Amino acid sequence: MKDPAAAGRTADDTTPDDAAPDGTPPAIEAVDVRRSYDLGATTVQALRGVSFTVAEGEYAAVVGPSGSGKSTLMHLLGCLDRPTSGLLRVGGRDVARLSDGELAELRNREIGFVFQAFQLLARSSALENVALPLLYRGTPRAERRRRAADALGAVGLDHRLDHRPAQMSGGEQQRVAIARALVGEPRILLADEPTGNLDSRNGAEVMRILEDLNATRGVAVVLVTHDGDVAARARRQVRVRDGLVELDTARPAAAT
Ligand SMILES: Nc1ncnc2c1ncn2[C@@H]1O[C@H](COP(=O)(O)OP(=O)(O)OP(=O)(O)O)[C@@H](O)[C@H]1O
Ligand SMILES: [Mg+2]
């Protein structure tokens, strides 16, 4: 419990703790979230009670040693996974109350996710890869193609619409993945080591694109990085260790 007034609150309570003054819930709110992996003989406690809020328009870098729980946290925030316990609200919705289908729909609407290894469909063109989230949404084909082309234009790839992933450089593939994350106009973009497979020049270009999207479109960005320079450029730094948030510059008093 955060304070005496919160006594008696349950995870079912519908009023978020960190709502903005106008009552808008934070983009993502996690309270005492835990995630353990049951391996039969043993259980790995990957997250051991993390509270974490992503506000509208935020730009945060998550750092920490290998195995500390960064990807586990990102997968939870991105609705790619569910907590073992704790409260997780995305776009004001308690994910524990959603069916798998509803969770997928929430993810599709609210979240763009960029992976270290791009995760593009090998046999599909850049345009088809980027249009995919809109296909799941039922957007008509002509609009899908128009919006996918716009998103690819926004990452400087107008000239690569028909290329398949193997026909593009690593930096281009990651820009396609960013376009795919953006095409549905999510409020939140989560990126797990987006520059991890890129050389420094392409890495810098990807970072420039993410910073620009945050500045010009107000998309909240949370990214995991091992690069100290990248982390230092973010407005907010979050350090994870042993499944706990050890430091969060947005919550200096709560980093215990
Ligand atoms: N599917 C899984 N089953 C069992 N254990 C897992 C699984 N995924 C992750 N873990 C364990 O959970 C812990 C946290 O893993 P996680 O991938 O979140 O770390 P990370 O901070 O992203 O590390 P890295 O910097 O190497 O990517 C690790 O001990 C890992 O071995
Ligand atoms: Mg990881």
In summary, what is this structure?
The chain has a domain of 179 residues: 3-Layer(aba) Sandwich (Rossmann fold), CATH 3.40.50.300. Helix content is 32%, strand content 24%. The chain has 7 helices and 10 strands.
List key phrases describing it.
Rossmann fold; 10 strands; ABC transporter ATP-binding protein; binds magnesium ion; four-stranded antiparallel sheet; nucleotide-binding; alpha/beta; 256 residues; binds adenosine-5'-triphosphate; globular
Protein model, in words:
The protein is an alpha/beta fold and 256 residues long. It has a domain at 56-79 and 100-254: P-loop containing nucleotide triphosphate hydrolases (Rossmann fold, 3-Layer(aba) Sandwich). 32% of the residues lie in helices and 24% in strands. It is built from seven helices and ten strands. It has helices at 70-77, 100-110, 126-137, 141-154, 170-182, 200-217, 228-233, and strands at 28-38, 43-54, 59-63, 85-90, 93-94, 111-114, 188-192, 220-224, 236-241, 244-248. It has a six-stranded mixed beta sheet with strand order 6-7-8-3-9-10, sandwiched between helices. It has a four-stranded antiparallel beta sheet with strand order 2-1-4-5, with helices on one face. The two termini are 14 Å apart.
Unreliable stretches: 1-16
* Count of β-strands: 10
Gyration radius over CA: 18 Å
SSE order, one letter for each helix or strand? EEEHEEHEHHHEHEHEE
- For this structure, the CATH topology of one domain is Rossmann fold
What compounds are bound to the protein? adenosine-5'-triphosphate, magnesium ion
- Report strand order across the widest sheet: 6-7-8-3-9-10
Please tell me the CATH architecture of one domain by its name. Answer: 3-Layer(aba) Sandwich
Indicate the structural class: alpha/beta
Shape: globular
